[in-house]
Amino acid sequence: MDRQRLVVAIMAGGGGTRLWPRSRRIEPKQFVAPHAGGDSLLRLTVRRLEGLVPPERILVICGQGHVDLAREHSGLPAEAVIAEPEGRDTAACIGFGARHALRLGDDAVLVVLPADHLIEPREEFQATLLRAAALAAERGVVATIGLPPTHPATGYGYIDRGEPLDDRTPAAFAVRSFKEKPDPDTAREYLARGHYLWNSGIFAFEARTILAAIARHLPDLSEGLMSMADVTDPAEVARVYPTLPRISIDYGLMEKVDDAVVVAAGFSWDDVGSFESLGRYAERRGDRNLSRGEAEFIEASGCLVDNDAPGLVVVSGLEDVLVVRTRDAVLVLPRSQSEMVKKIVEELGQRGRDDHL
Amino acid sequence: MDRQRLVVAIMAGGGGTRLWPRSRRIEPKQFVAPHAGGDSLLRLTVRRLEGLVPPERILVICGQGHVDLAREHSGLPAEAVIAEPEGRDTAACIGFGARHALRLGDDAVLVVLPADHLIEPREEFQATLLRAAALAAERGVVATIGLPPTHPATGYGYIDRGEPLDDRTPAAFAVRSFKEKPDPDTAREYLARGHYLWNSGIFAFEARTILAAIARHLPDLSEGLMSMADVTDPAEVARVYPTLPRISIDYGLMEKVDDAVVVAAGFSWDDVGSFESLGRYAERRGDRNLSRGEAEFIEASGCLVDNDAPGLVVVSGLEDVLVVRTRDAVLVLPRSQSEMVKKIVEELGQRGRDDHL
């Protein structure tokens, strides 16, 4: 495959409720820096593409309200940042990205990836993307990146991988089926069987191939997407976008195509989906305590403080507690519940606390 | 006793470590409002004296660094606020107050009271003060206010009361002895015996009587106090004050005088000595949760949030936890340890966190 065909679309539309109050509606997770004082996840994602594609072939797709933040964090030319007038789930976003990719070339091979993952090392990441993109281009199929599971996670979709494709492309397999997020027993079964991979949410395909697949499997979405004569015309996008059907790419498309392929990743991957993930980048403070930002632990153990504002957090006499502090909010909960922040945010919304979300 | 003789000295020199981070070195407890958004304890103390003495016969004695705050909170004329160049404990402070009271009249009867107590109702409080002041003036003795104990507190000194003085002054007794803060067993014994009162730290005496008592029992302190020709001369005060011996009025004087009297208080009293005390003025939120300021409790019970800054505190999935938030600090600890905040502050000091204290 000619590398000149590559276009990368970074999906930066996440709402970021899982890291509240560190991430907010007005500043979701992709704009949060995993290392205190360091680059945001979006910035790291853009930098991870250096050398793979030139800046003018990177798109960042984000919510209307985040355009300025996305421009600032990505450091890309203004026209690289594409606004969704409202979130319509991943199938619409990817179709919209494919329409934009076609502007950059009829034969564009599009790589779609989330803005808020941490991945290392860059070389292995780029090599894996190239392998997936080449497979997608040569075979005219959807190629996904799968992650060898390290534990029976229930928060990710899985890919049941079939036979190796050929000897020429290492770690590439046919996809037998895509599986939705499993219950714990099923997750353990997947892990034990050894031929399941986590679905990374990173895909590669020719822009025209994915639009054809959308036309076949999601005709309503296709009709909406193709009804826009010019996808760079804000008025036209604003008119059409809110009418697009809301469906995920996994459920709406991936589960229906029968010739997808998967490349097993050799890079380390973290979706930074909870404060426990962020905690991996925190400072070790003795007695199993961890801190990001200013904190003191007094007869406390196993506690995690994420302090994003000037000033001090003191935890005394407690065990396994998570304290998140931003300039204008504090969240205190048991660390065992750190995966449940999304539910807390939903509850706050129901209580009319939207102004804090 | 002629009420024109009364002078009230409010002791506002406390460092306020027991309510950190709500109270700070730069803004101790007397400047904290027990009711969110309401008057500070100092302001409430001044207002509690309305009708008893005119403003020009009220003194507020505070640390040098708190003069502006004390003027603002007390609402008194600028000259009412008297600065101690540094804290030298209560005996020096009371002697200094007595010297100032003498400026207002040779026969001044001085009532000394802490700036950071909550007392109700005002009428009963004033009647009790008048009763103590009259006894002090008529008998030329130290009169104290004692509080009928409600539980075996270990945080207060006790007064062993002797015989009733006479039929004319109800609830007035001879003092058999002053007792320092007891251990728990002793406190329970005091409570059971029925003739012990808590030492409120409120005293009445003629200014010349207390200075004579200081001369007799604390000659070094007396020498220092009397060496100042003019106690309103800042330079003279700054020269002498730091040399005064550091000793408490209880230990240095009260335990040594043998003719003190005590008036048992009929008012309700709270020294606001911990966040549990402050919690009495908080909003009840269900599941035994309490809040001052913006807070939400999600599957939490028995928690207390003291939120003094704009923004939200969310406590989820925890029991009996205390969260204190100010603009620039957060403290999280078990409610059972809310009396130990002073120790936490000491520990923070030892860790070099003075800039946060």
Descriptive overview:
Chain A is globular. Chain A has 357 residues and is α/β, with parallel strands linked by helices. Chain A has helices at 41-47, 67-74, 89-103, 122-139, 184-193, 207-217, 219-227, 234-240, 249-254, 275-279, 341-350, and strands at 6-12, 58-63, 81-84, 109-114, 118-120, 143-147, 158-164, 172-179, 196-206, 261-264, 268-270, 283-284, 290-292, 295-298, 304-307, 312-316, 321-326, 329-334. The mean pLDDT of chain A is 93. In chain A, the strands form four sheets. Chain A has a five-stranded mixed β-barrel with strand order 6-9-7-8-10. Chain A has a five-stranded mixed β-sheet with strand order 12-13-15-17-18. In chain A, strands 5-11 form a two-stranded antiparallel sheet. In chain A, helix 3 crosses helix 6 (207-217). The first copy, chain A, is built from eleven helices and 18 strands. Strand 18 of chain A pairs parallel with strand 16 (312-316) of chain B.
Write the layout of secondary structure elements.
The structure is a homodimer of 357-residue chains.
Chain A: E1 6-12, H1 41-47, E2 58-63, H2 67-74, E3 81-84, H3 89-103, E4 109-114, E5 118-120, H4 122-139, E6 143-147, E7 158-164, E8 172-179, H5 184-193, E9 196-206, H6 207-217, H7 219-227, H8 234-240, H9 249-254, E10 261-264, E11 268-270, H10 275-279, E12 283-284, E13 290-292, E14 295-298, E15 304-307, E16 312-316, E17 321-326, E18 329-334, H11 341-350
Parallel strand pairs in A: 1-2, 1-4, 2-3, 6-10, 13-15, 14-16, 15-17
Antiparallel strand pairs in A: 4-9, 5-11, 6-9, 7-8, 7-9, 8-10, 12-13, 17-18
Helix pairs in contact in A: 3-6, 3-7, 6-7
